[in-house]
């Protein structure tokens, strides 16, 4: 059985934020429930895994699960919190003597290589704009609005009638951009704040109040919110739609119909 594992559930800065002494950050510092690595997940199929995104906490995330290597990775976009671990993965591939496989839309590849020009020696960059099949999953990807931070991509996975979507970095999506989410069994959506008061033009990720409206439209069977900043304190009770769960580091979700 395939299981989704949350390697990281934090926003770009993670939790705790180095400069911050708020209640959430202090609780996280003591190893509490709010400690969040940068956002990343993997699909564990029992004998191997397929990861999505590789931020700067990648090394500690692999240690957390006891994994000694990683063969395959999907990348949503080339922001540091989603690709900052690539040089360490490439080094690991070099020492293990194998080439990693990185799947991402074609336009993302040159942006990654501009930042880390040496990665191509140890990682094959494979464009996946037209979708692909991996471990029996039909995987499709499409571009999503990332507000003031430009764009990201979302991934949609389908196997044996079970459909789920991973969309950590997006905001103000158009109907065309939400179309592939309709009727998903599981939607994993990034929500950096419960309510973000900042001017919309300065923002880049949904908050939970906007996400509730999105869920009314796309009606997933259930949703998990991730990519959360120190604004979100998991010890509090938030008003959320039914069948929404806030992700916790290390959380596992079976990818089968309930
Ligand atoms: Zn991000
Ligand atoms: Zn981003």
Describe the overall structure.
The protein is α/β, with parallel strands linked by helices and 258 residues long. The chain has one domain (3-254): Metallo-beta-lactamase, Chain A. The chain contains seven helices and 14 strands. The chain has helices at residues 23-29, 58-65, 80-83, 86-96, 109-115, 175-178, 208-218, and strands at residues 3-8, 40-44, 49-52, 72-74, 100-104, 123-127, 132-134, 137-145, 151-159, 162-167, 186-190, 222-226, 244-246, 252-254. The protein is globular and about 50 Å long. The model has no long low-confidence stretch (mean pLDDT 97).
Small molecules bound: zinc ion
Number of strands: 14
Count of DSSP H/I helices: 7
CATH superfamily: Ribonuclease Z/Hydroxyacylglutathione hydrolase-like
Throw out a few tags for this protein.
single chain, 258 residues, alpha/beta, Metallo-beta-lactamase, Chain A, seven-stranded mixed beta sheet, 14 strands, binds zinc ion
Helices, strands, pairings?
Elements: E1 3-8, H1 23-29, E2 40-44, E3 49-52, H2 58-65, E4 72-74, H3 80-83, H4 86-96, E5 100-104, H5 109-115, E6 123-127, E7 132-134, E8 137-145, E9 151-159, E10 162-167, H6 175-178, E11 186-190, H7 208-218, E12 222-226, E13 244-246, E14 252-254
Parallel strand pairs: 3-4, 4-5, 5-6, 10-11, 11-12, 12-13
Antiparallel strand pairs: 1-2, 1-14, 2-3, 7-8, 8-9, 9-10
Bound molecules: zinc ion (2 copies).
One zinc ion binds at residues 77, 79, 146, 149, 152, 169.
